[in-house]
Design goal:
This protein is an alpha+beta fold. Helices cover 32% and strands 30% of the residues.
């Protein structure tokens, strides 16, 4: 593991510990202007991540979800971090454990490094370059680590879909491709299941933001998978000032494990 990745994993584990402290005592819920929920855990975790990334990587801008919601977005160049301090706030509120800390590094429009920590599940996933791994976390430390990679897709493939945001368009797409084996999961864990060879595709036609997907895309790519738009192009990052679209908003995408699966789906 590179020193850079080690520092980012450590920051994610600290943020996760803070989230769990709030989770265990319970947190009040507020509503942001876009209608999405936010809790104390989101804000505390983001403060930890902003401090850590700012100290260790002062030359790399950080775009973080809650900061962006308040209109505080730094100028970005070809390299910047995308942070979702608590991906799956609805899962956090619903207490099902399927929430994560997401940190992704984008370079020239492509996620190149990602860390996802699921504190309630005690699992951490990371990817950089051509190396992806997952580990178990105990007492705030990674106690075991093993390489992971996507699997050859079975027929029919196994899909994962959003537990809280599964759209009609996603359901219709699965029906058109006769994919019946679908597991519902919260947050960015869906990318991790593909990277770990536990599922094969994740179609998403509902709204997501770049901080929701950057870490997962980096990890999946490091494990041998892809994230593409409906026309087959890689999902790109740093989308600002594009017509009337919201800054950093993604369009529809398809995350796949086995790259050959895209050809069979047509």
């Amino acid at each position: 593991m590179s020193e850079r990745l080690d520092l980012i994993v450590s920051a994610a584990l600290r943020a996760g510990a803070a989230i769990m402290a709030v989770y265990e005592r319970g947190a009040s819920v507020e509503t942001k202007p876009d209608g999405s929920p936010v809790t104390e855990a989101d804000r505390v975790a983001e403060a930890i991540l902003l401090d850590a990334l700012g100290r260790h990587f002062p030359d790399i801008p950080v775009v973080a979800e809650e900061e962006a919601a308040e209109g505080r977005v730094p100028a970005i160049g070809s390299r910047f971090f995308l942070v979702d301090p608590l991906d799956g706030t609805r899962e956090f509120i619903g207490r099902n454990g399927e929430f994560t800390v997401n940190i992704g590094l984008v370079e020239d429009g492509t996620p190149t490094l990602g860390v996802i920590y699921a504190p309630c599940l005690g699992r951490v996933f990371a990817g950089e370059g051509e190396n992806a791994w997952q580990g178990e976390v105990e007492a705030g430390e990674v106690v075991s680590r093993r390489a992971m990679s996507v699997r050859p897709a079975p027929h029919p493939p196994v899909a994962v879909a959003s537990r809280s945001h599964c759209s009609t368009e996603t359901t219709d797409w699965l029906d058109r491709h006769a994919i019946c084996d679908v597991a519902s999961r919260g947050s960015s864990l869906k990318f991790c299941l593909l990277a770990a060879g536990e599922a094969d595709l994740y179609p998403r036609f509902g709204r997501t933001m770049e901080w929701d997907t950057a870490a997962g895309q980096a990890i999946l790519q490091s494990a041998g998978g892809r994230v593409i738009t409906p026309d087959g192009q890689p999902l790109r990052y740093g989308k600002r000032g594009i017509c009337q679209d919201t800054d950093f908003e993604n369009g529809a995408f398809l995350a796949i494990g086995d790259p050959g699966l895209h050809r069979t789906l047509g």
